[in-house]
Every structure is written in structure tokens, then in C-alpha cells.
Amino acid sequence: MATAGENSAAELLLRAAALVPLDRYALAALVLAAAFLYRFLELHVLGDLLRGLRGGRVALTFHPDSQVYHRVASKCRSLHGRYLATPWLASPHLQTLFLGIWGRPPSVTYRRQLYTVRDGGTIALDWLLASDWEAADGSSCDGTISSDDSTPIVVVVPGLTSDSTAAYVKHLVFSMASNGWNVVVGNHRGLGGISITSDCFYNGGWTEDIREVVNYLHQKYPEAPLFTVGTSLGANILVKYLGEEGESIPIAGAASICSPWDLLVTSRFISRKLVQRCYDKALAIGLKGYAKLHQPVLARLANWEAITSSRSTREFDHHATCVVAKYETVDTFYRKCSCANYIGNVSVPLLCISALDDPLCTREAIPWDECRANKNIVLATTPNGGHLGFFQGLTAGRLWWVEPVSEFFSALHDSPCMHRQKLNNICMQTQEHGLQSPLESSIDKGPYVNLMEDGMVAAVTNEDTNTHESLDKHNQAVSEMEGSDVNVQQNGITSVLQDESHSAVKNTSGTEDNVPSAQGPVGSQEQREELSTDKIRDAIAPVKKSINQLIRSQGRSVWWLAYIAVVTSWPLLGAIGFFLYRKKFRNSSPAKRLLRG
Q: What is the architecture of the domain spanning 59-262+338-414?
């Protein structure tokens, strides 16, 4: 009876379901699919509608006493407003995919230079000058920059497997050039149509290339302030470079866009969910495509079969990056190369922009406390934006983050907060990179060439053996032109110190002959004074020799070195004088009264 009742209930349920029209089922399925996609794609259209299409407010994190915020970031209107995403791209995944597939970039024509670094690698520097942008309106342009040009230069560091042709790079380059600034994109090794010319590949912690490029630009255009922008993995490289250099860096200001911050946390994040694993696989495909372009070199350094079989970025880093860069494990590579470890040492005004819904660089890796503790850093976060997307407007023709970067650099350029490299740091950095100066690169002698859309560009190297001689002649000519009066004074002071040094040596030898008579029971007062004077000269002679050597190497710091010598010598002279005249001091009547009291 129970079984018959159950069967009858099931039959009644099926009959009732059959009476429902099919269009109702289709509508219900559509609603369920929409809810699933809304959740899966992390859409925020309803949230934007509930906020009245005003967008999410930009949250700023900074030190309360930060002059970078009060004098620079506070003047940036976009940082104190809201960001509203394009309605039909109201999803971090849609924004990221749209940027990678299309992005609607402006038309940009670069001028290319090939730069050869000290290890033989080749970097493509793609320029867009402010004069090039003005020439688009019909005015003439020679496409060169004079060495005394004071127009600011913006150095762009692209992301993983990206180069100057990326849509977001073109948006940034076009915006900065339209504001009258010169922009150069420092493509990573092996990208931008350039072949690998050494056994060194770039990675997420490789800062040598940006260091050499910045040093070259600073020496080539000393009057032009340098600003840098890093995007995605390029932001990690940039912030790590800023932290490594500290005060000894010729960069006036910097911006970090969608940085991964902690590579280990980011690596675990992109392998957590289904949608993140899709991004991880897509990045691995891009890395294998990059490796395939340079198979002859990479196959010689690592296991090529293991590289081609990599299905994630972690596997690629295990088989390729760790082997070429000589890291023990992948986690070791991620920990050592994460820029979050270097934030505390950043001394350059730095604007950091991140989206809290970034599908690649999770908010879990953002170092909130470290950014708040550093007075030079201003962190701006938005609820939405995706990874480097931040599309705004109905037509998605603009990237929001480009505007605050432009405003921040403009306000910083007009403020006293702009970082300036100290003289002693410049000297230290020149000595540190003295093995091969960036000016020795063939970039000074290589012509500009047009950027090709397809095909590899052969690397240009220079085997000129007279490079060092030409550099010596150039430095000598510059020193003679800049400070002839200083050189005359320097030679005069040097000759005087040399004479005094020789006399001190002679007096020392004479002192050795007079030692027995000075130590005799019947020694005259004049002999004691001469002996004391000779001992003082003997003690000062090494100091004078050191000053002589320093003056030869640093002619412009003569008076500063003399001041240091005087200040540091007084305690030594006082100690020597007290030691020599302590008996006379004790026998004097004022000293006796002082000791008795």
C-alpha cells in the first residue's frame, strides 16, 4: 500500500510538472545561468546601480605625516574621487580579457634604440617623444633629445611577456606624451622582436636591466628628471629596484600599477579556484611561447622537454627560471624576488594603485602596514578594476589609472618632494657600475629604426676597442670645460700638500737622529719643543697624504674635504699635545690648584 501511494504521488508530481509550459522552464534555466555567471564572473552591475552609478570610492593608505601625500597626492583630483567601470565591462574578468584581446589602444609610432647591457644582452628602448605627438598635428620633428633638455622622461616597465605594443602601455605612453613628457618603454629581454644575445633571461626579480637603463638615461640626459612606471610584474621589478637602491637612485618619482607584491602568495592564489587556474594556464602558454622564440638558447641552458610540458607558471619557473637564474626552489625564487620585502627601504615618492577584485594579483598580498609606515608611499585601492583594466566611459576608450599617474607625476614635478640623488651616492653608484658604463653601449652609436610589427630584429653590438679611451677623453674635456678655476685651485693645493708631505718625511728622518740627545739627562727646552713638533708633523703626514689623494679624485669637494680634515684632526692633535706636555701641565701652578681642588 505504501509503495502504491508513493508511486501515485510521483506520478502526480510528474503530471503537474508536465502541465508547466516549456518557456517557463527556459526562463528558470536562464535565471539560474545568469545567477551562476554573475557569481562566477564577479559582476558588479547591481552594486553600481544601487550606488546610483557613482562608482566605488578610491581608498588611500599613507603615513599621517607623509609630505608626499599632503603636497602631491592631495592635489590629484582622481585620487579623491570615484571610479565607475564601463557598464558592459562591470567584471574584473571581462575587463582583463577585454584589455588582453582588444583594449582599444591609441595609435602610437615608436622610435627604437637598441641598448647592450654589460653581460651582452640586448634591450629594445622604444621612444615616444613629446615632439612626436606634436608632429602628428603637422609640425616638424627631428626626433632627437639634446643632452641639456630638461623635459621629464618617463620610463615604462611592462608586465609579464608584454612589450611596448601592449594596449595598456600605449594608453599610458600616449597620455604622458600628450602632456609634453618624453616616454621610453624598456622592453624585457627577448621581447619586442629582439633576440636573446646572452645566457641571461629576465624574471620577476631581475632588476639589473632597469638599473642600467636608468643609469644610462641619467648620464645621457642629466637635466631631465626621471620618472618610472611599472605594471603588473614590471611593478614588482620596479619596487624591488627602488628598495635595493634606497637613496642612491636617480629617479624623481615612481608609480606601481597592479603589482603582485608577494609572488608566493600570488602563485598560490592563481591555483586556488577554477577561474584563477584558467589565468594560470593562459600565463603558462604565454611563457612557453616566449621560450619557443628563444629555443636555441634556452634548450642549451635547461631541459627543453620539461619546459614545453609545463602547464602552470609554477612548473615553468621550476624548469626554466630557477635553472637559468640558479635558484634552489621555486618558493625560494618567489620569496627572494617579492617586492614586499623591499618596501621599507623605498626613498622615492611612490604611488601604488591596485584593484581589490584583481583576478591575478590578490588583495591578500597587498602590504598595507608596510605602505602606511613608509612616508614616501601612497597606496590607492579601488573596489573594481580588474588587472590593469580600469576601463571607464560607455565606449571603454580610457584606462582610469593612467589619469592619477599623470596627475601624480605632474604635481610631484612641481613640488619640493621630488627625489634628488645625492652627490656621494652618485659617486658610489658610478664606482659600483664602473665595470662597464652604460655610455659604452652601442645605443650611443646605433641609429633609430622603425618598430616592426612582425619578425625578429637582429641585435646590434659594438666591438670598438677604443671605448675606454674615448670615455676618458670625454670626461677630461668635460672637467676642463666645467671647472677650469677649480682645477687651478686643486693643482695649487695639491702641490702645497705634497711639499708639506715631503718636508714632514724629512723632519721625521731628522727626528730619528735627534732621539738620543733628546732622551739624555741634559736636554734643552728647544730640543724638546722640536721633538714635539716633529712628532706632531709625523702624525699629521698620513692625514695630509690621504687628503692629497682625495683631492685628486674629487676636485669639486676640496673645501668640504678640508673641513672634514680639520674637524677630525683636532681631537688627535689635542691628545698628542696633552701626551707630550702632560709633565709641563702638571708642574704649572694653575694645574696644581685645579688638581688640588
A: 3-Layer(aba) Sandwich (3.40)
